[in-house]
Fold this sequence. Notes:
18% strand; 43% helix; globular; 12 helices
Amino acid sequence: MAGGVIAGTAVAAEPVKVGSILSATGPASFLGEPEKRVLELYVDRINKAGGVDGRPVQLVLYDDGGAADKAASFTKRLIESDKVDVIVGGTTTAATMAAVPLVERGEVPFISLAGAVVIVEPVKKWVFKTPHTDRMAADKVMEDMKKRKLTKLALVSEDSGFGKSGRDEALKAAKESGIEVVADETYGAKDTDVTAQLTKIKNNPNAQAVLVFGLGQGPAVVTKNYRQLGINLPLYQSHGVASKEYIRLAGGAAEGVRLPAAGLVVASQLPDSDPQKKVVTEFTKVYEDNFKSEVSTFAGHAYDGLMIALDAVKRAGGTDKAKLRDAIEQTKGYVGTGGVVNMSAKDHMGLGLDAFHMVEIKQGDWTLVK
Length: 370
């Protein structure tokens, strides 16, 4: 009898194994480091509160340093050696896309924290994501341009996974919105000067606004060079820079820049009627109290990924991977830091354009554009 009790207890306490690959160091560390902090913090909090249905959560986390080949080898390790139940991570689009064939073949649910639409379009059976897509960012910028009666756009993009995908989506969105792209310039992820490309835009008599698609240091370099050249056109960035780190890197040059971002960065400015208000306000407080630094949308992506995964474990009644995958796909009405998530067999992200807010940088902080 005693043996039965012990065996039962052992089975009940089997951990929920959450794997993660993040770019906690390297060029994308300002995305990956807050993601890492959040996963570790909330796994600890959940375990102290009794785990998931009495099971502790075990986090197995690897840092790919922003290298796609490392992301692939760590994903292989998570699946084959660590035998995780679900993977939350892939800080960048390049790292995510390196992991995709492995999770599809291994049939392990994977919730990416990266931005490009290619991650979930076309739909891949085992792959989901929490952030808004680059396509949504492009659509939101075009919407704002039309409100401002701007019809001619100059595009500047980084020749990386996110930058390339963002460029493609911006070209499509512009065409559908009746906005003419009058310049199309690119820069390298490690470039420390983009003056040559921006000088062409400055000398282009047709350009009425500029949109930059990139991650890390690049967008800040573009912003500084832009101001140094005295370009007076409205400057847009993507949600890839929705972190105070961008404002710090760009300094005063960031003043007046607009970008689409999650409600998280303007939590206190959201109306009380907004369903996200309570969630983002609470998350901001927990993050800032624990880490003594400003919250970023990237921290929020990790929180949403973890909560969606663990909620699915509860609804699936355990960690059978096929049932867990189905439960993630059936996520409905989850109010997260990125918006209200309603997934389906055709939509493995589940966010509408209304989950995005247009924000403007004023006096070194985010301001909601009314």
